[in-house]
Write a structure and sequence with these properties.
Low-confidence stretches: none
CATH architecture: 3-Layer(aba) Sandwich
Strand content: 15-25%
Number of helices: 3
CATH superfamily: HUPs
Strand order of the largest sheet: 5-4-1-6
Largest sheet: 4 strands, parallel
Radius of gyration: 13 Å
CATH class: Alpha Beta
CATH topology: Rossmann fold
Number of strands: 6
Order of helices and strands: EEEHEHEHE
Distance between the termini: 10 Å
Shape: globular
Number of domains: 1
Structural class: alpha/beta
Amino acid sequence: MPAADVIVVLGGGITAGPPDGLYPDLGAAADRVWHAARLFHAGKAPRVILSGGRMAWRGERPSEAAATRQFLTDLGVPAAALLFEDRSRSTRENAQYSAELIRAHGFARVLLP
């Protein structure tokens, strides 16, 4: 895997547990989050964008990006390395809003686990 400026983790892999729950729920696509942590720890990129908003039908649960943050920090990725996109409600919006962050930070090379 080549080195890059940033790793982008699209939503859909993790959902927040109940509002009073302690841990996020891992979904079928949670491997993208595990792989992002592995890439970060391997020194492949110094920053990670977490993408995923809050779905109205899930009630007051935190956004997917917030749930992913909790899991990645539990895996040893420092909070200072994380950037958040928590407005998206679809994969298309994950890409659109993450691209805005990529441009705003001047990142040129992206890894998408």
